[in-house]
Design brief:
heterodimer, A: 290 residues, mainly alpha, MetI-like fold, two-stranded antiparallel sheet, 13 helices, B: 276 residues, 2 domains, globular
């Protein structure tokens, strides 16, 4: 099938996409790397000079970097645990015969389609507001004091909002994987007297392992760059309490106009994301061979 | 775990599952409900669930005071525009990769995927500066390009997995009958590929509609879509919950419907074919 002519056609037809993607990624990335070695502030144009790795030294020794790195890891880790565990439980639930299951599934996956700014502002105001929010009212029903979420537990609030948004993603993928589980195998195990718990740990969970890996890797890539939820609710504060790496780079670039420092931060973010990306690409590459 | 065979078990498990499902859906339900309240009722404690004066004034006000329609149009233009541009590039690319593969095809696909792994903050600074110098900040054209490029790897991947499923025998048969390449694409391939192309478009529209990094950073007013419009409620004046809810409901409604229709294809697109 792959004659020389068809190979050539194939190259010509796939070239435009590859070229535009290359320009979109490689050129700006190259510029970011170049900027990261410059003293370059938008407020003092024409003063750019080569300063070697000084931007990296500043960025990596800045207490704000450690705070935001810790926040990033906490945010990613917590959301991953919540969505994967919740996703498995909800996936198992939706895999059972339920009255009106199709509609119920639509309700459960709905949060995934809500745009991040809406998600953040609805949660911050309608639900988490310490005076008029739904949670404050529910707490008062039990005679408990209302929690001022964004003052006392800002990062937790962000984690809750982001988890709510990504839970459906985990559910969708794990449910799809569950539905491809071989029923005969489960029935055979039941005949042999295996209880639901051992079926789960010895049959269901191993079957899900690949899907779980995919969920973890893909979510990590998106969660490393959570931005809008922080942008519209806390603005990174109070202090640095909700500043993640993505938000720190944003403040340095577009609020402090420190192009050099922000570029160094951007490269650090790229390196972090690539650590995850390598695993994901290997996994998907293997899948492509089958 | 097939122990829900008894009618009682079925009913009680259904009730349990529906309670869980409704709790997860509650924020959206509450947002829609609040959008029909007056501002005072929106913040009242205890909250009113049904017995309030249902009103549409928030929807009217959102349009009159902040020109909602302009932002909605921008969202539509950006989402549809970037999808159509992406389709032209992605269909040809995925077609070539699926039917005329070379030794490098796999590497090219994985490389495309890897560009998707790049965190946007890594290229925020140069893109912002280039856009500023080229006068593309706050233009629809600039954002369409960004959204198109951002989602191009997903589109190529998704179409590739669909095209791979089309039996090549049919194409060979068409070639034997003397079909030229354009004819082969238009009369043989496209009809079979339409479902895949449609769901790729839907996923891309969802992703572009909800994109909130570039749209927030590269727009101020002229090209600002709904993500930015909603973000403007983060520093409001006076009572605003009902209006926020009305604006939010309008902003998420179309995409929620599209999302519900394409939920199965979503899995394939978002996992790059790793889970089907």
């Amino acid at each position: 099938m792959s004659t020389r002519a068809s190979t050539l056609t194939g190259r010509i037809m796939s070239a435009p996409s590859i070229i535009v993607l290359f320009l979109w990624m490689a050129v700006p990335l190259g510029m970011t790397i170049y900027f990261s070695f410059l003293r370059y502030n938008l407020l003092s144009p024409g003063m750019e000079e080569w300063i070697g790795t000084l931007n990296y030294e500043f960025f990596l020794t800045d207490p704000a970097f450690f705070a935001s790195l810790a926040n990033t890891l906490l945010l990613v880790g917590s959301v991953l645990i919540i969505t994967v565990v919740g996703g498995i439980l909800l996936g198992l639930m939706l895999d059972q015969p339920i009255f009106g299951r199709g509609i119920l599934r639509l309700l459960v996956i709905a949060p995934f389609f809500i745009m991040p700014t809406v998600n953040a502002l609805v949660w911050k105001n309608l639900l988490m507001d310490p005076v008029s929010g739904m949670f404050a009212w529910i707490a008062s029903l039990f005679g408990l004091p209302a929690i001022d979420w964004f003052t006392n537990a800002p990062l937790t609030s962000i984690i809750i909002m982001v988890s709510w948004q990504w839970l459906p993603f985990a559910v969708l993928i794990l449910l799809t994987a569950l539905q491809s589980l071989d029923r005969d195998q489960k029935e055979a195990a039941q005949m042999d007297g295996a209880g639901p718990v051992s079926i789960f740990f010895y049959i269901t969970l191993p079957h899900l392992s690949r899907a779980i890996t995919v969920v973890v890797l893909i979510e990590t890539i998106f969660l490393l760059t959570v931005f809008a939820e922080i942008f519209v609710t806390t603005g990174g504060g109070p202090g640095l309490a909700t500043t993640n790496i993505a938000f720190l780079v944003y403040t340095q670039a577009l609020l402090q106009f420190d192009v050099g420092g922000a570029s160094a931060g951007g490269i650090v973010a790229v390196v972090l994301a690539n650590i995850v990306a390598i695993f994901l690409i290997r996994l998907i590459g293997k899948n492509l061979d089958n | 775990m097939e122990n829900k065979q008894t009618p009682l078990g079925y009913v009680s498990f259904s009730v349990f599952a529906w309670i869980v499902g409704l709790l997860i859906f509650f924020p959206i339900f509450w947002m829609v409900l609040t959008s029909f309240k007056s501002e005072l009722e929106a913040i009242s404690i205890p909250p009113s669930f049904i017995s309030f004066d249902w009103t549409l004034e928030n929807y009217v006000e959102v349009q009159e005071r902040s020109n909602y329609f302009k932002f909605a149009m921008n969202s539509v233009i950006l989402a549809v525009g970037s999808t159509l541009v992406g389709l032209v590039f992605a269909v040809t690319c995925a077609w070539a990769m699926a039917f005329n593969p070379t030794k490098r095809t796999k590497d090219a696909l994985l490389w495309m995927l890897s560009t998707k792994m790049m965190p946007p903050v890594g290229v925020l600074v140069p893109i912002y500066l280039l856009f500023r110098d080229w006068g593309l900040l706050d233009t629809r054209f600039g954002l369409i390009m960004v959204l198109f490029l951002m989602n191009l790897p997903i589109m190529v991947w998704m179409l590739y997995t669909y095209f791979k499923e089309i039996p090549t025998d049919i194409l060979e048969a068409a070639r034997m009958d003397g079909a030229t390449l354009p004819k082969e694409i238009i009369f043989v391939l496209l009809p079979m590929a339409v479902p895949g192309i449609a769901s790729t478009m839907l996923l891309n529209i969802i992703l572009a509609w909800n994109e909130a990094f570039w749209t927030l950073n590269l727009t101020t007013s002229d090209a600002a879509p709904l993500t930015a419009f909603i973000a403007s409620y983060s520093s409001p004046e006076g009572l605003f919950w009902a209006k926020l809810s009305a604006a939010s409901t309008l902003a998420v409604a179309p995409i929620l419907v599209i999302g519900w229709f394409s939920q199965k294809q979503l899995v394939r697109g978002l996992t790059f074919g790793a889970v089907k």
